[in-house]
Amino acid sequence: MEITRAFANYVAEMTYERIPEPVRKIARRGLIDTIGCAVAGSIEPAARIASKLAREDGGRPAATVLAPADGADLKLPPQAAAMVNAIAGHALDYDDVNTVGHPSVPVVFAALASVEDEGGDGRDLLTAYVTGVEVETKAMRAFGESHYLLGWHSTSTQGVLGAAAAAARAYRLDAEETARAFGIAASQAAGLRRNFGTMTKPFHPGHAAWSGITAVRLARAGFTADPAILESPLGYFAVYAAGPYDPEKAVANMEGWTLERPGLSVKKYPCCYCTHASIDAALSIAKRFDLRPADIASIRAELSPFFLSPLIHHRPKTGLEGKFSLEYALAAAFIDRKVVLATFTDEMVRRPEARTLLEKVTPAKHDVAVEEGTRATFARLTVERKDGGKIIEEVAEPRGTAANPLSDEEIADKFNDCFSFARRPEKAAAQALEMLWKVEQLQRIDRLTALLG
Hints:
CATH topology of the largest domain: 2-methylcitrate dehydratase PrpD
Number of domains: 2
Structural class: alpha+beta
Largest sheet: 4 strands, mixed
Shape: globular
């Protein structure tokens, strides 16, 4: 089956009118959440370094960098702006997740930069975003969990396809050009999970966004690539699967919408999503039983093997490492009775009370049957008290999942908190939020980017 061509046709034929209103609503929420995360992340060292270097390199002023490092307005070539913004969007690990990993961050900023470069409108932005997320999530269906478990960071290895799809839609490539763009983008798929807990993790979606736009612009200029890159021997699926794979699963039910099912999970906590169900359980126990750290003898946290796999920092030393530490996340939840942006500074991770409590946390695999590929979120927490009591709490769906979603009000609150964290004016947040809830009414996207720059 011609998998690459099927995706190319899908992208070339996508229109705003084809997208049903329930999917448009999910997309609006995704845009709001991802852009808010990038504004907050713009003050993080990774984003500031990337912004500073990009300003030094300069280039055609086509697309806006969100909240650049030195505070002065900054426009760059679209691929450079997309890279800096995607790094900022993932710097706090606060952006949404699905079966790809973090689907929105490489796609939103590839779409935003491309649409701004083309002088497009709000409908163009929403359509490009939906197209990109649908392509990367559908493509991921060809893989089992082996791709991620081997060490690939699927946010970027799949995200580069989503970024290319979004940019191809924004630049209005035809199917032949889009197939070539996929060929170029697939050769740039990269990202290793060993870099979790460092600045290079947010670089992964930044690189994916940069690569997706670059692939599209090269293809539009006549650059060649294998037009069947996804399904061919020595091609994308064969090389990156790292285990059994089925390319035809990628194009099964192309008319369905992955934004509805499996949906997007918007993060309530600014750390690895695999900790969220356990954090919900810890906060529930602390509140219901008024449990203090001094009362705790031990904590056993049971997750699926897949959800344990990215939690690689058992004794974190930095805030970034703390985001990928189940032990620290649970210690912070019990000590502070909240998990917020300020939880993940170097100082907070190194505080003595957190170091003491995290030593009492034991991660383990749970005994709940999980079908491969479901990324089941179930977590069980067992807390042994020093007085001999035992508390067990189970969470199947943490807050923010498609099955247990945040309300529109909570999405808006998170967006406003992100602007506040970055010390951006409340008025700018309110204006940007109003525009994003009504994004399709924007006749030019640069009205939005002017507020965000």
